[in-house]
Structure formats: C-alpha cells, structure tokens
C-alpha cells in the first residue's frame, strides 16, 4: 500500500497523497489486539485512522477514539466561525487538505442565473472573507454557483477507505464512494484543520444486507426511505450503517451516495458501502482512474471480512422493494406507494400537489436527472406540462452543464420546470415561495432528505413529503398526491389515457461530464501577500481576539448570571433563526446568549444584575459584569447543552466574560466545546446541591492552583443574606484540557505552540 497516489486532481503537486499505508499499518496492530476477529468495513476504516492504534481503547459503542481524518470540508454558513477560529490559532496552513463550499446562502426566487447574481450581491462580504481566508491558509475555495458541498466532494475529493469530516449533516454522502465521512460542528473542524486528532465515540455498526436486484420504479432512494421507516429518526444514533450483500451490485455509485446522504436522517454517525466496480466507473468518469486503480489494489481493506459481526442486521430485498414516500413532517414515516393514496385520504393530508422539487445534494446525479428527464419527455410527448410547479436543483455546475448539453434542461423547461441555482436553495429554506400564504395547508414533494416542519418554506402548514426524483417528477404531472405512476394512467392532451413507462436513465454521461464554468479557486502559490478581507464596520463578520489566559488565581465571588431551570439545549443558549446572520460576528451573535433559558425566578431573558440590583437581559447583564472585570457563572440542570454541536453556545459565554458553567450533567459535546474555549464546565458532586443555589448568589471556585485530572474542586457559595455553603464539584478535564484552561483556550495553546 506504500505508493504516492494523489487524493484529488485539483490538488496535484500539493503532496496530498492517499495514505493507505497508515490504514494497513494500523489494522495490523488492531487485528492483533482484537485476536484477529473478523472486522466490518466501518471498523477497518475507522480503526485504520486511529491516532494511536497501540493504546486506543477499542470498544464499540463505549470508548472514545482519537482519529486522524484525511480531509475537512466546510459549507459557507458554518465555515465563517470555523475559519475565524482557525485564524486565531496562528498557523500558516491547514494541517489536512480542506475545502470551503458556497452553497447555503443562495435564495431561490426566480431561477438559477438571477438568483445567483442577487446572492453574490447580498453576501458579498461573507464570500470575500471566505475567498481571501481560504487563499491565505491554503484552502480550496468553491465559489457561489459551483454547487452543493456533498456533490462536489463526490465529484472531486471522496476516496474509498479514507476519512473525512465536514461541517454539514449530510457529509456522509461520500459513503457512496466508500469513504467514512461524518458531519461535525465547527469546533471539531477547527481542531482537525489545526492538526489535533478528532474524537469520536467508537461507533456501533448496523449492517444492512441487500439482496435481489433493483428495477422498475424502485430507486436507491427507496432503500433509505425504507430503512428510515425501520430504524426511525433515532435508530442510527452512535452507529455507522454499513451496506453489503449481492444487492449492492445493482446500485450506481451516485445511488449509493444518495443512500448514505440520507442516513443522516436516522441519526447515523455515517453510512458506507464497500468498494466495487460501480465506484470504479464513477472515479473513471470523474478523471480519477488512478484512484480507482489504487483502490482496486487495496480492495481487501475496502470491504468487510467474512463473518464480521454487526450490532444489528436489517435485510432488504431490492427485487421486492416498493418505491416509498416518507412524511409529512418527519423523514421516518415511510409509506409504500401502493398504500400511499389511501394514507393521504386516511390522514387528511392535502391531496393536491402544489410543488414538486427534484435535485439537491441528495438526488441530483446525472442518473437521477436523466431518469426524470425521460419521464418528463414521455409526458411531453402526450402534450402535457407539469400541473404542479416543478423545480430542478442541480447539485453542481458540472451536473448542470452536462444536463444542459444533453438536452435534459430543455426538456424540464419545456414542461414548465424551473432550473434553480446549483445550491441548497429550498432544501435549507432559502426559498422565496410565492404560490401560497403562510399558514395555508398544502402539500409539496421533494427528492431532498429532510422534511421537518417549516424546513423548506418556513410555513408550518406545508406538508412536505420525500421520495425519489422519479416519483416527484411523475406526480408533478398529475398534480396529485394520490397518483401512483406504477398503476394509474394520466390523460394526455389528446384526451387519451396513457401510463408512464418504467423510468430509464444513464448511470453516467455517454459523452463524459461537461465541467461547465470554472468555479474553483485554488490557493495561490505565494500566500504571504494575501490579505483576509474583514470590514471592521461589518455586522456579519468580526475577527476574533484571543481570550485572556487564566490569571493563576481562584475565581472569587463570581455572581450567578442565571440559574437555568429544566431543559437547556444549545438552541436555548444560542438561538438560531435570524441570529444565524451573525454567525461570523461573535459580538453580535452573543446578544442571543441564553435568551431562551428559563431562570429560577421563572423569567426568560430577564436576570438581576447583582451589582446594581436592576433587572436586564441575560447578555446585557453578562456584558456589564465583564466591563467591570467581574467573571460570572451559569448554573444549570441536567443534560445542559444538548442538541446541535453549535460552537457559538460555548464561545458566547466566554466572550461575555463567563468563567464556569456548573450543572447536574452536561451533554458531552457542549462540555468539550466549553473546555476548548477556556471555560470551566463543572458537575455537582451531589445533584441536590443544585437546589442550594439561587440566581442571586455569588460563587467562589477554589482549588484551581491544584487543578488536576480526577481531583475535585470546591465551591464557596455566598447567599444574598450573607450565609454560606460549601459545595463539592467534579470535572472531566484531562491534563491536555487543563492546558486549554490555563492558556485561555485550546487555540491559544495551539498558537503558543506554533510560535
Ligand atoms: Fe444543502 Fe440540503 Fe444538502 S441544505 S447540503 S442541499 S441537505
């Protein structure tokens, strides 16, 4: 396995080689340690990326692994804070190859070209910042219009057997090329970009055994729609979903990517397929025959061992699998097409179909587009246009240019379709929908992945269903959710009934892909003169200043800023929605800190300023303490900081001068994020002590000079009436993490080491 094979043609000459040797070496060690027990594919790839294969504790579903991913990918919404943080580490280049993709900020209004133009205008400062910071730090930059992150990764960067993290939940899409690709929060991406290992709970492995052969109206999408119905939205939590069995052969590479992409909907860490000739064909078609050749030689490590054990096995027979439609409001409510019309009636779902939307990162391959175009062409031959509105979102500029060249775009437009920009668009709610009013009950159907309430159009009354592009296209002609193209006929313009033929398409373009416009910006050779563009007057972006190092003393009489009662998710700590506009501006977004938390006095976003005795908003009072040089603390309940891994939830309290968060229990990721920012996440040793503290108390944190792993700290609580309590607290800091606290943050420590 010791060859110098480049990971990606776009990075030729940069020294980014496929490191199969490390996998081979690591697996030798791990096999010995596991007494040569047969391994799943997921284990091979994950353990093949261990930072320390000799000493890592390996226990599926139990231990935590330190891993060395090969790549990082960020989308433009999450990249802003990630890059700002990376910059403050003071490193000249990212430690692993990294790319940034502009896809989330483009709103669909009228169509691809004008929508893109408007987005470039509105988001100019963000794009300028991303373009210049990428250029400065050696990061590949994909401009707005280039396409959706996961499609571009599949086309250019995914490599069988390698590991990638991405700051987007559907990063697992690259599993279609046999890569272990996981969605993470910005803090994890920053770590890996800065050369730290990435920590992951040793995943369980769920096996999906595919038998039979796919055909007719059934598509790869139906595999995951069916599996989602079986496992539900939580069923994949902590697990990698690994597909195997003879049925795999009847899936195209891009079809496998669709399945892996939507595995995010069942909470899976990621999904992965074994390497096969269908992946080889895709690599060939995307100028990566050298990668296919190398993967072929390494094939023994790109599939499971015989007899490998799964934590759970699900069987799917592709020959018997029916097309499914999932939804509304949740992706795991799976209904086979034969039962769907009845379900629409039984549940009183609006039967009229208002809009059909195909494409997105989930389903915009050449194969998907060619099949949908064939359906559209057949309807057109009968004189029909779509009854519902019909939109097409190409996943990349390459897909768009290729389907334009091959006439599919014309077919779609001829039947009334609108081709949107190569971007997330309606999938992430970037959709200026005009055909209904907010609150109107209505149905739409998409070939996307997520359909939670309000996701696409911010209308909670919209019933969003998810299906294959084939079904979406056919149903758009019927304009009705009760139409089943497998059994029902439509009336042509001539008044005659016709039935759709089974859809047929092309796995890959016969004439090869057309790259379209060049939308990639490679980092320049000489990066020393590049200036990162951040306008000091910007309200969306702000450079980060390093947090102050620990002053070497105990924390004395820190007022409790808020004692939070009950559930406190990262959404309570750092609200989303309109605040996301400020995700690159820590000072502005900090104005949302804990505005959703319920205080012990029963208030929301109203706490007492213990210095003045007056009430104010939580962020306001926090900032007032900070201006007075007075650190403060938060007291919280159980599972504090659960929810998304949003790093702002940890950055904001630190920015506003917080010193510690003391709770009954933490959600693990948030606890780690707090440590990274130099805060002290502390646990009550006795949960009942939570009741002894009030929002009007002051707390001293004692013992910091002897702060050590496994050693408790002590709180001295002074109540309003002057009485005191001493309360023991524990923590989960290890030696390295205590270093973060002392330096003021993990990045401070890294910056120190770099200079
Ligand atoms: Fe974008 Fe939707 Fe995919 S938001 S990355 S197209 S899931």
From TrEMBL:
Residues 559-687 form the Aconitase A/isopropylmalate dehydratase small subunit swivel domain. It holds the Pfam family Aconitase. GO terms for cellular component: cytosol; mitochondrion. Binds 1 [4Fe-4S] cluster per subunit. It comes from the Eukaryota. Its EC number is 4.2.1.-. Pathway: Carbohydrate metabolism; tricarboxylic acid cycle; isocitrate from oxaloacetate: step 2/2. InterPro entries: Acnase/IPM_dHydase_lsu_aba_1/3 (IPR015931), Acoase/IPM_deHydtase_lsu_aba (IPR001030), Aconitase/3IPM_dehydase_swvl (IPR015928), Aconitase/IPM_isomerase (IPR050926), Aconitase_4Fe-4S_BS (IPR018136), Aconitase_4Fe-4S_dom (IPR036008), Aconitase_dom2 (IPR015932), Aconitase_mito-like (IPR006248). One of its GO terms (biological process) is tricarboxylic acid cycle. PROSITE patterns: ACONITASE_1, ACONITASE_2. Its main location: mitochondrion. Keywords: Iron, Iron-sulfur, Lyase, Metal-binding, Mitochondrion, Transit peptide, Tricarboxylic acid cycle. Belongs to the aconitase/IPM isomerase family. This is Aconitate hydratase, mitochondrial.
